Amino acid sequence: MISHLKGVLLKKKRDGVVVEAGGVGYDVLLPGAVAAQLEELGAGDEISLVISYHLIATPSRITPLLVGFTNDVEREFFEHFISVSGIGPKAAARALTLPFARVAQAIIEGDVGALTLLPGVGRKRAEEIVHQLKDKVAAAALSRTRAEAAPPSAAEALLEAEAVLEQLGYSRPEIKAIVDNLGDGARGCSSAEEVLSLIYARQKRGS
Above 70 in pLDDT, residue 189? Predict the structure, then answer.
């Protein structure tokens, strides 16, 4: 799983960039708010992105999707955002055109009207975002004084693991049941891989 990408900007695309790292060109999807921060970069410039990695399943294949951010806080917010039922990584990237701090503030304040300004977010979806994320975003805001270089927390690892399970076809109720079954077991996990290994180990013992 790719969590960070540093290399040379090959070209900008309508919805992202192509980054060359180690002789390989990586397509990276960028939310509008992130792309706006990278406007001054041009082809040949060095670029460093924090990556949220996803697997997009279709009837014929499974395709990796890399979504890029300038720091860990942006990625954390994005992964909270896609935890809302019905919002996938591509839809979230299209929606997040406003600065993340402004979107987070709208969620904390319950400002549904402000959220409907996001592309693809109607009033019903905006109300659902507030309902599901208000407490999560407020809690995250309290911890943002931590260094951006800090390793992922167990909570972040769990969110990433949940996103992987959803991409694999698990329903939200199934994922909730799986996570609830972990109890405090995931507290020592520092990556989604560790969380998934723990889940599969428990499922194997229970089979």
Answer: yes
